[in-house]
Amino acid sequence: MLTQKSIHEREKELQALLATAAGRQELQDLESRYQEASGRPKPGKTSIITYLLVHERGQGLICG
Fold it and tell me: Is residue 18 within 8 Å of residue 24, measured between CB atoms?
């Protein structure tokens, strides 16, 4: 059985992806998939990390 990650654990994982070009591309890919799935674009001033966390929390993928 998979356990949910805490919001803080997931935030640190996503922040670590910002350190590399491949990681930044992965974040952009996640953003695109989440926008497509929800039909809601990322608000202009919202960080990509916040957008991803809100989406994942809403889907029950993370707790906290």
Answer: yes
